[in-house]
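### Sample
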Amino acid sequence: MAIETAVKPLTAFSYVSFDVVGTLIDFEGAIKNGLARIARQAGVDIDGEAALTVYRNARYHSDALRFPDDLGRCYSQIAAELGLPDNEENRRLMIDAVGEAEPFPDSIGALARLKARYKLIAMTNARRWAFEKYEKKLGMPFWASFTTDETGTEKPDPAFFHQVFAHVERDGGSKADILHTAQSQYHDIGISRELGMTNAWIARRHAQQGYGGTIEPARFTEPDYRFNALIELAETADRAFGR
């Protein structure tokens, strides 16, 4: 399902910026798979969605580390809640599992189509070491990329976005030329609206209840464009350009 409420057409943009984890990369699936592996070894039954709720709550903490390094700390809290063994081996397993998370099935094809029309920018709260793994799996589609290692901060901090704006300005563009595309209301959609960007919400959890492993926003921001999958954005862009 595609919902378009924006006045500005997709043909008006030169750049598309992306949240990566949760929008292009299925980190929730990686968390569930890693925990399922630990649970099988321990002979424990767990509810994957319940585990995501514990993870989401753990990410609110002031002592949270950069993603995905923080999975070790978060696992300790998940283990305590769900009765799993908490040890260094399992904490490392979870960090590695999320560091090796796979793209959503439509991500690679959609990015290739969008790359033919726009300069693509990755804006991720993941560390560079993890992003480099994700980027390879996605087919190396990005014109530019920004991780927490370079920005020194995480979205939704406006400072993260301003570093991207400055980079685009050096290329001769402006934030008005960027369509910001993301799954997270908390990290991306709300702040992009506050900063005056046009945005596209990829509602990856449209068939599920709640916010899963993503921090819940204080309030919902109605996006300019809404798609249930990234491929819908690529298809809509193709139609907009007359293909």
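DSSP finds ten helices and seven strands in the chain. This sample (HAD family hydrolase) is used throughout the tutorial notebook.
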